[in-house]
């Protein structure tokens, strides 16, 4: 059974977009109607789940298939009837390691693939809000211009929302670290005052 890759966890849920979890409810979401989606405050470089040019290259089946060779997909997986390179690339996965792969549309990175895994089911189970799943698009199908534009728009907004979530969580982590330091300083000061003036101060 495949699982979320450690490099992609960032302490967030398996589906960080639209889950309504406490860690993201108050985050400054980018919505599809938000004209400020490309805000300068968005730290794209640091939190981008799939930077250029890879992000655009892997939209091609041929490029996705190629990654399973360059990243050395396990021999046992290459021989699998369900998750061999061709099957994986057809569903939308591209290889990120010997037993890890990422979806080009939702950027979900799963590791620990085994020969019996079903790439389509794994995708739907781990990321039901993926643009491909939501729009019901088969990556193997030849899309109309309208469908392609719709898919590209969904992918881009999904990506921006994911970046915003990660950026927001990083801010929260920093705030928690600062609170911890403040508490330690207060405790240290309290002990020093008690030592100097006694516990009844």
From TrEMBL:
Annotated InterPro entries: Baculoviral_IAP, BIR_rpt
Signal sequence residues: none
Keywords: Metal-binding, Zinc
Disordered: region residues: 1-37
Keyword Zinc recorded: yes
CDD domains per record: BIR
Keyword Hydrolase in record: no
One Gene Ontology MF term: metal ion binding
Compositional bias (Polar residues): 20-29
Membrane-spanning ranges: none
Protein's recorded name: Uncharacterized protein
Organism: Ramazzottius varieornatus (Water bear)
